What we know:
α4 (114-127) links the parallel β3 and β4. The strands form three sheets. Strands 1, 2, 3, 4, 5, 7, 10 and 11 form an eight-stranded mixed beta sheet that branches. The protein is 31% helix and 16% strand. The protein has nine helices and 13 strands. The protein starts with a helix and ends in a 24-residue tail after the last helix. The longest helix is centred in the first third of the chain and has 21 residues, at 3-23. By secondary structure, the protein is of the alpha/beta class.
Amino acid sequence: xxxxxxxxxxxxxxxxxxxxxxxxxxxxxxxxxxxxxxxxxxxxxxxxxxxxxxxxxxxxxxxxxxxxxxxxxxxxxxxxxxxxxxxxxxxxxxxxxxxxxxxxxxxxxxxxxxxxxxxxxxxxxxxxxxxxxxxxxxxxxxxxxxxxxxxxxxxxxxxxxxxxxxxxxxxxxxxxxxxxxxxxxxxxxxxxxxxxxxxxxxxxxxxxxxxxxxxxxxxxxxxxxxxxxxxxxxxxxxxxxxxxxxxxxxxxxxxxxxxxxxxxxxxxxxxxxxxxxxxxxxxxxxxxxxxxxxxxxxxxxxxxxxxxxxxxxxxxxxxxxxxx
Length: 324
C-alpha cells in the first residue's frame, strides 16, 4: 500500500516538470508565447464566444456571412491581472458585431518576474488571449513596433483585414467599431482619433487611445526593420511619422467625436474636442483609469442588462448610480 502514494507523487512531479518545459522552454522565461486556446472573440456567434481567433468556430452560413475580421491588441504589462480580468468581462458581454469577427489579445513583452511567469502562464492556459513578444517592457522604446511587426508572422495562416493597438484604459465598442470600418479602404488605412484635434493636419497623428491599420500596413512594418530604431518621440507620434515617410498615410479615418476621453460632472476638467460625455454611438472611450470610471461607463452602455432576478443575490443597480 505504501508504494501507491509514492507512485502518485512521482507521477505528479513528472507532470509538473513536463508543464514547465512546455511553458518555459527558454530558460524559464515567457517569450513569444502564442497560445490560442480560448481568447475573447467578439463575433456574430454565441453571446459569449470563446473560440480561437485562428480558427473561429462559426456555422457554415455564419462563416459565409462574415466579411470583416479585426484584431485588437491591448498593450498592457504582466502585473495588470485585475485590469485584464475586467477587460475580458467587458468585451465578452458586449453585443456581437454584425457579419464581423473582432478578436481581442493582450500584448506583453518578455515576462521576467518569477510570480508573473507562473501567473501569466496560467492565463495563457485558461484564456489563450496573451501575446508575449520578444522585447523589454517599455512605453516608448519599441513595443509598438514589436507588436505590429510580429502580427503578420503570428497570424500568417489567416490574415485579418485590420490590425489595431489600444491601451488597457480604453473601451472599444466592437459593434460600432465594425460598422465604422465596414466599407472603408483595406489598403493604406489608418483609423482612430486624430490629435491634436482641430490643429495643423500635417502634424496630426492617431491618439494612443487606440488606432487601427489595414493588414498591408502591418505587413509593411514587418518588412521594414529600420523602423525598429526610428523613434525620437512618443511611439504614437512616431507611428504616424512612419506612415507619412513610407507613403502609407493615405486613407485616414478620423472618428471624432465617437472616440474620446472619459468625462463626468464630478471631474475638475472642462469638456473639449477630445473629452466629453458618453455617446450612444461611441467607438471607443479612453482614460478609464479606475474602477469607478469603468463602472459608470459599463452602466451607461447597459453591460448589466443580462442580469436576471434571483434569490441568490440582491443587487440594486439603480440606487446610488451616478448619472452623467
